[in-house]
């Protein structure tokens, strides 16, 4: 499961990193504790190039009766994403990148759980593999939402948790976003654990467990 992450870069850094052609975001505040049902920056491919906008985290399929289902669909499993009714159509047609610079996971320690922040070794920006959809309420109001795909853990993560988010290799990002790419088998091959040698993890304060806490102090390495 991936239930919390961080995105603390500036809007300019995000636009430069992904070579964005069209940004719907006017500002981007650092978020040290992104949680489900938050609006998150996301990158999709459009006819005009890469587009940066916001999606609400927690997928609401277009056919859902109401939006409440979103809180239960924050993740999609790589092993079944091509089979589940909510995801298989999106895998072919509505893929996105959700930028992050770290994510949190909790390791069981006896009767308690210790939160960790997991990130690239150099602290750089990286890309979650995501899917998105647009739902419309009876009044015609549209809601665009997303889910983050998860996979089996790499050697760094397996000591912390039995799942990890799919982080795309930089060289695979274009294939994932490609609007003309509907080859399910090749897409599924991109959904694999990221190279553990390029990542690191450290313990963070337990305050990250409360979604109301959102400050730089949550990033502190408490050893």
From TrEMBL:
SUPFAM superfamilies named among the record's database cross-references: BB1717-like
EC category: hydrolase
Keywords annotated in UniProt: Covalent protein-DNA linkage, DNA damage, DNA-binding, Hydrolase, Lyase, Protease
Superkingdom assignment: Bacteria
InterPro entries on file: SRAP (IPR003738), SRAP-like (IPR036590)
The keyword Protease is assigned to this record: yes
Signal peptide: none
Keyword Hydrolase carried by entry: yes
Entry EC number(s): 3.4.-.-
Family (UniProt): Belongs to the SOS response-associated peptidase family.
PANTHER family recorded: ABASIC SITE PROCESSING PROTEIN HMCES (PTHR13604:SF0), DC12-RELATED (PTHR13604)
Protein name according to UniProt: Abasic site processing protein
Organism listed in the record: Paenibacillus phytohabitans
């Amino acid at each position: 499961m991936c239930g919390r992450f961080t995105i603390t870069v500036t809007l300019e850094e995000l636009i430069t990193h992904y070579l964005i052609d069209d940004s719907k975001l006017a500002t981007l505040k650092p978020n040290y504790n992104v949680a489900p049902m938050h609006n998150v920056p996301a990158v999709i491919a459009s006819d005009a190039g890469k587009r940066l906008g916001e999606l609400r985290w927690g997928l609401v399929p277009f056919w859902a009766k109401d939006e409440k289902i979103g809180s239960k669909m924050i993740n999609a499993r790589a092993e079944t994403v091509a089979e589940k009714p909510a995801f298989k159509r999106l895998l072919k047609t509505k893929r996105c990148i959700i930028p992050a610079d770290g994510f949190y996971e909790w390791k069981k320690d006896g009767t308690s759980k210790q939160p960790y922040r997991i990130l690239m070794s150099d602290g750089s920006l990286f890309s979650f593999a995501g899917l998105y959809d647009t739902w419309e309420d009876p009044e015609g109001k549209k809601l665009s939402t997303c889910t983050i795909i998860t996979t089996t853990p790499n050697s760094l993560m397996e000591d912390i948790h039995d799942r990890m988010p799919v982080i795309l290799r930089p060289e695979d990002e274009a294939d994932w976003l490609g609007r003309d790419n509907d080859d399910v088998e090749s897409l599924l091959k991109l959904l694999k654990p990221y190279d553990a040698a390029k990542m690191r993890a450290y313990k963070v304060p337990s305050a990250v467990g409360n979604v109301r806490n959102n400050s730089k102090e949550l990033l502190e390495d408490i050893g």
